[in-house]
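Researcher: Before we compare anything, I want clean individual predictions. No alignment, no superposition, just each chain on its own. First chain goes here; please echo the sequence and then give the structure tokens.
Model: Echoing the first chain and its structure:
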Amino acid sequence: MPSYSAPAHRIIGLFPALLGVGGVQQAGRLTALALSEIAHRHDWEADFFSLNDPCGPQTLRMDGREVPFRGFVRAKFPFVFAGIARARRSPKQGASVVLAAHPHLALPAAWIQLTAPHFEIVVMSHGIEVWNPLPLFRRRALLRSHRVLAPSRSTAQKLREVQGIPSEKISRLPWPLSLDFLSMADSPIDALPLPRSFPTGRVILTAGRWDSSEGYKGADELIRAMAVLSATFPDLYLVIVGGGDLAPLESLAASLGVTGRVHFLGRLAAEELAACYARAEIFALPSTAEGFGLVYLEAMAFAKPVVAAACAGTTDVIEHESNGLLVPPRDLERLSQALDRLLRDATLRADLGRRGAEIVRRQYRFDAFESALERILHDCGLDSPNSA
């Protein structure tokens, strides 16, 4: 008797970028890796397309694995047509999913579904991009989706209240920490290559992308706090990691007389960033618009206490007096007081850091993220060939 062969399922992943720097890109990489693992385990077809990466076949290397994808160097129409072509080759009797890894890609996902109605749409949101109403056609495409994913309660609330997404369509899916980064956190400190310009002394570390459009990150507030703290802690430095438009921040440090206390390291390799986490005493990012904040997880993995603003998705990750200290947004006095408190209290730093390390390894594991994403795909009708 011939064996039953279940209809083939297909996943099409649409990503803004997989090779770039930033939280959205890192979230995309983690998602692509999880989708690839899920598809391989169930013998599903999976195709990944990235709008802004270099043109042609590319390979994402992460956590010791390789994920092939195709880049389109901002060519929007070829990007969409490639997804449509792949969808039309998918067997119509089997459920399939097109996953848009950013709300701005919900519209291309909807165009794909128009030509292949057997596809369900899943859209991933991140944070600030859904704080204001999306343009009409993007919003309509978002509303057509089967499921919208949010990394935090704050982002889920914005999806409901600002975009009008029904609660039953929203699933909270916190980002995990990559296995590569956890491995570095567990490595001996001397095994991590420290940048030469990293200062000798006590260090408050912050990391992000410092474009003028992302002034909400709070690097300016940290520089002002350094001006407050420098007299009390003569061996204290602020290390700012990340690229972008650094000139305004450098000018601010000069105007406050703390140029020698603020070190700008620019973009670093992952191993160098890990070395900075390992040698810093405190991680601080008083951002007022984080959808989630993967950098908080990175700091927690290295058992560092975190100082952050008590708003947006940050409060899903940082619990006041448990794994960090939360301060009111844009409150320089309270920010300076929190940093001063941690700098004076080694026991508090150790306790907050230890609990953070425990939390990140318990609640933000990659395998838990992969399992949750797999359940969402099953909800869209994708089942294991052996489940029928």
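Researcher: Okay. Second chain, same rules.
Model: Second chain and its structure:
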Amino acid sequence: MEETLKTKKEGTRQKIEIIGSFSKSQLISFPSIGEVVEGKLIEKNAKTLFFDLGTLGVGTISGKEYQRAGQDIKELKIGDSIFSKIINLDDEDGYVELSLKEAGKDMNWAKLQEKVENKELMDVKIVEANRGGLIAKIYEVPAFLPVSQLSTDHYPRVKDGDKEKILEELKKFIGQTLQVQIIDINPSEEKLIISEKAETQKKIKEIISKYQVGDVVEGEIGGIVDFGAFIKFPTDVAEEEKIEGLIHISELDYKLVKSPQDIVKVGETVKAKIIDINSDRVSLSLKALKDDPWKLIGEKYKKGDEITGQVIKFNPFGAFVELPDGLQGLLHVSEFGSEKKMKELIDIKKEYKFKIILIDPEDHKIALGLQNETE
């Protein structure tokens, strides 16, 4: 055995010396640092593995690389062939230094790249959760599943978008298996992004293509968040196939909606009008099927009229006022000179008398001025 290693070692040294006299074109087929090569185990001891690399000579896995290999080398027997990565072409003893761990890492990324090219679906087990999403491991490579890439059934619908509550919902997936697809891969940055909804998006796009803006659908309110309500409506493809769309809070009613729960409840069946279709997303409106009170506002009120309303909200450019019929008017901050002065002179939830200084039914706008008590 010692003679074999000696011969291989001398062959490696001789080869390294000869390299200097070759042109670059003649060395194209010669392995270099970073390449993955196949070798047959010819000797094994407590600290080093020796591999026959054919014409390249003898390769070794020792020291730090031996420790890093860990479990991967325990079952290896003399004569077994494995792939490893060249990290040094000529160590102090003339051997080719190899890394089993680095080779496995490269091969794992190669297998992942193949799955990307084949658009392959795979089952992964969730091992961790953070505020941004879930983490799984594929071939020992950490894969990130962003919240935005969860299926509609798994998307955490938390009131007011509380990040801590979202994290608690995400933690419930730890230990569960989800079917995903790789949507972004970058081995050099060790970035692997997966999606649970990538495959379903294709089906949804096909189903949505049968609908048009203006269609009226009937469905069930499946979830309510601070910015609106989700509605699931059946399709003519199959009974179990349903599309989920969003009714934004601004599309729930013509009047100012403080909370979507004031208008709809989970489990309630409603009719809604499709107002936008964007790829796999559907936007709907409840108010589009209701009578528009602004159409009659021009007949009911005119500039200069006095009207009573309740201050419901402040913002830097004024105060929103709830008027009769549930409509909303704006009392501009310029009426007071500053936001601070405005908050000193009027209070939230209190009623005041106002004068209409501008009315535009078409754009759904009413500008107000505060009526002085002496007027």
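Researcher: What stands out in the second chain?
Model: The chain has eight helices and 20 strands. Additionally, The chain has four domains: 2-105, 119-196, 211-289, 294-370.
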